[in-house]
């Protein structure tokens, strides 16, 4: 039973090269999820599937390794390693400090040695930075890290998720263009597409994510010259998901681009570009930053598309501060650990809730009762930390449940270390008509729970005691 240490296998390499951790030749190197020492040893030294990064459907099957195979299997550096190293020592190489932590370069402008040096920069012969709104070394490290996780050629980091959404839509859809989106995409993006882009002469069509979605999309693509298909997957708070490969195939046949807001599925759980999307964006405020302490967004895709988005973004002035970028770099280092804990807690809790007599319905992609479970299992590597459920009560009873909870904060947002809970009828739809709520599938008894990284048993006990109070 040889302990599979990566460093032992690479220790003959020069130090700098070791830090790159080239494709690992270690089939034993896998994500460890077990909480107990015996399971952990079992998982590490044998018996378990090499399940990390396999879509959930595949992770159920055990790959057969040829017995005693002497040939090492080349594999990609894992997400757990990329979140820590990508973009930093890796790929940068021009840092003027030995600090392990990426420096926060706070300067707003960069100087040139002389005019020839400036011309070399303008001609692209020398990589540097000019003015903080166009780019910054700390922000660039973050952009490279995200590109690496998304398997993208390029990434733009923005001052908020909404800023990234607006820059993407404005840059990729010209006046006279046509956007197709879904009825339950992020509400502010939906309003921007319908109202503001509508005033710019851009048409939009909204389709439902339901069993007829394929034919609705085919129909709208056949009857219109669609520029961009834009959608969240998974959706918030009803946790539906799109078949991204299918949507990309249909759209690409008709020359339309596909942009996925993957905020609810960070790259540990889903990589839409690998499924055929052209652009993926996130509110990095959520899982990526992960600590409820920084607002940011990111947009990734091909160099050609992201340079278009970047040009618009420079004009609308949505640069993120280097301090905020550093906080996300720091937050990302633990993203794999955090998200794995959140995936696990949410899945276990969804199962507990689904069997509870005081719970009417649970919305979670990891449950077989979810109509989107089979698609999610094919395209995701984890179902995420958000669970929505309907308690067997009315508005007031549900409020009593929320108020009886002791661990989570009553707050909007999701994806951070602290669990958050909210009742959408009160938090986001207070004062809106029943018709408006029904249109968005929001019932008075709906609870949206964003699981943090607290221990599962503590959260479970808290939820169970609060259910008794409805
Ligand atoms: C799915 C989704 N997309 C985009 C956004 C906007 O992100 P931000 O608040 O960082 O601007 C949010 C915010 O809640 C969101 O939930």
Automatic annotation (TrEMBL):
GO MF: cystathionine gamma-synthase activity; pyridoxal phosphate binding
List modified residues, type N6-(pyridoxal phosphate)lysine: 286
Where does the record place the region Disordered?
1-33, 47-76
Q: Which GO terms describe its biological process?
A: methionine biosynthetic process; transsulfuration
Q: Which keywords annotate this record? A: Pyridoxal phosphate
| Cofactor(s) for this UniProt protein | pyridoxal 5'-phosphate
Task: Kindly give the InterPro entries that the UniProt entry links to this protein.
Answer: CGS1/2, Cys/Met-Metab_PyrdxlP-dep_enz, Cys_met_metab_PP, PyrdxlP-dep_Trfase, PyrdxlP-dep_Trfase_major, PyrdxlP-dep_Trfase_small
Instruction: Output a single Gene Ontology CC term carried by this record.
Output: chloroplast
Q: Which Pfam families match?
A: Cys_Met_Meta_PP
SUPFAM superfamilies registered for this protein in UniProt: PLP-dependent transferases
Compositional bias annotation for Basic and acidic residues: 50-65
What family does this belong to? Belongs to the trans-sulfuration enzymes family.
Q: What is this protein called?
A: Cystathionine gamma-synthase
Source species, please?
Eleusine coracana subsp. coracana
């Amino acid at each position: 039973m040889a302990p599979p240490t990566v460093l032992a296998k690479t220790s003959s390499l020069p130090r700098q090269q070791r830090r790159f951790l080239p494709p690992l030749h270690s089939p034993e190197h896998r994500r460890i999820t077990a909480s107990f020492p015996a399971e952990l040893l079992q998982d590490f030294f044998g018996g378990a599937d090499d399940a990390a990064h396999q879509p959930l459907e595949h992770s159920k099957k055990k790959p057969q390794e040829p017995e005693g195979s002497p040939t090492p299997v080349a594999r990609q550096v894992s997400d757990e390693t990329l979140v820590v190293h990508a973009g930093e020592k890796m790929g940068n190489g021009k840092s003027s400090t030995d600090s392990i932590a990426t420096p926060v370069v706070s300067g707003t402008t960069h100087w040139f040695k002389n005019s020839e040096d400036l011309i070399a920069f303008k001609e692209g012969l020398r990589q540097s930075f000019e003015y903080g709104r166009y780019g910054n070394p700390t922000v660039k490290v973050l952009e490279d890290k995200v590109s690496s996780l998304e398997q993208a050629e390029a990434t733009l980091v923005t001052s908020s998720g909404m800023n990234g959404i607006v820059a993407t839509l404005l840059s990729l859809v010209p006046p006279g263009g046509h956007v197709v989106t879904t009825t339950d995409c992020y509400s502010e993006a939906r309003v921007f597409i319908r109202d503001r882009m509508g005033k710019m002469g851009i048409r939009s069509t909204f389709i439902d994510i339901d069993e007829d979605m394929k034919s609705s999309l085919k129909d709208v693509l056949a009857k219109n010259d669609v520029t961009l298909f834009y959608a969240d997957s998974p959706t918030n708070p009803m946790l539906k998901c799109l078949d991204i490969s299918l949507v990309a195939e249909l759209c690409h046949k008709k020359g339309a681009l596909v942009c996925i807001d993957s905020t609810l599925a960070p790259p540990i759980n889903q990589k839409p570009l690998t499924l055929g999307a052209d652009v993926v964006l996130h509110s990095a405020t959520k899982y990526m930053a992960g600590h409820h302490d920084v607002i940011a967004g990111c947009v990734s895709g091909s160099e050609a598309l992201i340079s278009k988005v970047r040009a618009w973004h420079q004009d609308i002035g949505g640069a993120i501060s280097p301090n905020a970028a550093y906080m996300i770099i720091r937050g990302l280092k633990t993203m794999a650990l955090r998200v794995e804990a959140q995936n696990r807690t949410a899945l276990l809790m969804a199962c507990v809730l689904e069997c509870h007599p005081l719970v009417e319905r649970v919305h979670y992609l990891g449950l077989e009762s979810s109509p989107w479970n089979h698609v999610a299992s094919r395209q995701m590597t984890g179902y995420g930390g958000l669970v929505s459920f309907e308690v067997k009560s009315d508005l007031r009873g549900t409020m009593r449940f929320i108020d009886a909870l002791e661990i989570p904060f009553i707050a909007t947002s999701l994806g951070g270390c602290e669990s958050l809970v909210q009742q959408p009828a009160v938090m986001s739809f207070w004062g809106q008509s029943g018709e408006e709520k029904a249109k968005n599938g929001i019932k008075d008894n709906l609870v949206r729970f964003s699981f943090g990284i607290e221990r599962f048993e503590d959260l479970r006990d808290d939820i169970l005691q609060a259910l008794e109070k409805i």
